[in-house]
Amino acid sequence: QVQLVESGGGLVQPGGSLRLSCEPSGSISDVYVMAWYRQAPGKQRELVARISSGGLTETVESLKGRFTISRDSMKNTVYLQMNSLKPEDTAVYFCWRSQGGKAYWGQGTQVTVSS
Q1: Which pick of 17, 44, 67, 82 has the fewest CB atoms within 10 Å?
Q2: Helices and strands (DSSP H and E) totals, the chain
Q3: Angle at CA 11, nearest 5°, toward 97 and 2?
Q4: If phi over 0 gives left and psi between -120 and 50 gives alpha, with beta otherwise, what is residue 76?
């Protein structure tokens, strides 16, 4: 019913920046919550940040000041701006969306922070 396509991942050096994008398509609603999660090998998937259709945003405490979630006012696309990247940020980053009592996951995009 809803498809989520992430993009923008890749290899970046420590201290660098990257912006991820998530574009929903299909039977999308204007009432929703979207979020970014990440999962490193051998670790649990963890919440990074989330945004509601009402415009409320949250970034987990440990990532505040470096990671920011936002949306395009003319599109449905949600972004994750990542600055001052560290090797421990290396993970697969997943987009998530909840609407109409259902939840959907994107396929994930790899972010690797290494010199």
Answers
A1: 44
A2: 0, 11
A3: 15
A4: alpha
